[in-house]
Design goal:
Elements (H helix, E strand, L loop, with lengths): L2 H14 L4 H11 L3 H11 L4 H17 L13 H10 L2 E6 L5 E6 L10 H27 L6 E6 L11 H14 L4 E7 L3 H10 L5 H4 L2 E3 L5 H4 L20 H5 L12 H18 L18 H20 L15
Parallel strand pairs: 2-3, 3-4, 4-5
Antiparallel strand pairs: 1-2
Length: 337
């Protein structure tokens, strides 16, 4: 870290000493004993501008306090059939670690349908995964490797991506905005695999619109990306959709059983589910477990992100018309819930 950056951290740290007690408590929960690394993340996200990074972090802490984020890991999505439906339609999971000890998060963007529950359940589930990563997975990786591990790596599977994905843009924008504003600089690299033509064509247009900081983190790999990913992780940590060429079909997903890291039957999801239920039981004496989703405020999307989403929509429509797929656009509600 350069001298100027060290000065920025020092200034930021002294500003954080002046925040209210409820925000301080949430901050402690958030930094997990690594306050300096947390300040650096927010400074990076705001190009080392102390005033902007301070506003970003205070806004984040207020969001946490107002929405009860510090207690979200004691709020199970019940009954279990509803939670299974959420898992089956919002495909994300954990498949292992890189050789450097970074957790590998898998996301099935192409086949996620987001059609089995209300938006609030998907947002709640996503934030629970973020919080479990930050409060359980990363601290245990840090302990295991004897050095601070504060970031993960994400592999985005585009298998099955269709024009109808436009229906989910509103929800995906809400989730990515929550991540950008409240969990900045938590992902080292995004690897995109199993990208169909429709994604590749959009990517050419969208890539120049992204911030340089974001663009540097995204790598589009050939096919299922297996050979490239094996340079940084062992075979056992590869998500199921990266294990062999042509393995990315939805049929393959459904038959993977406990190897499918998206499935509720996978070891990671079982641990997460048990953890949330244990936390809920320990708090049940003070308040009974209630059914129903937590309502978390969605921050307004970044104007730049909104522009990118509009560009993606335009490109999807162009592709649809070019390939005679205009009919499959029927029923696609670009601004629908």
């Amino acid at each position: 870290m350069g001298i100027a950056n060290e000065e920025a951290v020092k200034e930021f740290r002294s500003l954080m000493e002046e925040i209210d007690e409820p925000l301080k408590n949430s901050y402690k929960n958030m930094h997990q004993g690594y306050p300096t690394e947390t300040l650096v993340r927010f400074l990076k996200a705001r190009e080392w501008n102390v005033a902007k990074a301070h506003k970003m972090l205070v806004d984040c802490l207020q969001w946490r306090v107002q929405n009860g984020i510090d207690n979200i890991l004691s709020k199970p999505i019940i009954p279990i059939d509803l939670y299974r439906a959420v898992r089956d339609s919002h495909l994300q999971g954990f498949s292992g670690y890189t050789k450097q000890g970074l957790p590998v998060i898998a996301i099935g963007l192409g086949l996620s349908t987001f059609d089995k529950a209300s938006v609030n359940y998907y947002v709640q589930s996503h934030i629970q995964l973020n919080e479990y990563r930050d409060r359980v997975v990363l601290p245990s990786a840090t302990k295991k490797h004897g050095r601070h591990i504060g970031t993960c790596l994400k592999i985005l599977d585009m298998t099955g991506l269709k024009l109808s994905a436009l229906n989910n843009i509103k929800l995906l924008t809400a989730i990515s905005t929550i991540d950008d504003l409240n969990y900045p600089e938590k992902t080292d690299t995004y690897y995109i695999v199993n990208a169909p033509y429709i994604f590749s064509a959009c990517w050419k247009v969208v890539k120049p619109l992204l911030q340089e900081r974001t663009r540097r983190k995204i790598q589009v790999l050939q096919g299922c990306g297996r050979d490239e990913l094996l340079k940084i992780m062992d075979y056992g940590s590869l998500p199921h959709f990266c294990r062999r060429e042509g393995s990315g079909s939805s049929k393959h997903y459904r038959n993977e059983g406990t190897d499918n890291c998206f499935s509720l039957d996978h070891e990671f999801h079982q641990q997460l589910y048990d953890y949330i239920n244990q936390q809920a039981l320990s708090k049940e004496s003070t308040s009974p477990i209630k059914q129903g989703s937590m309502h978390v405020d969605f921050p307004a999307p970044n104007p730049g992100d909104t522009e990118i989403m509009k560009t993606i929509q335009t490109e999807f429509h162009k592709l649809g018309n070019k390939n005679g797929l205009a009919n499959s656009l029927k029923g696609v509600k670009v601004n629908g819930d």
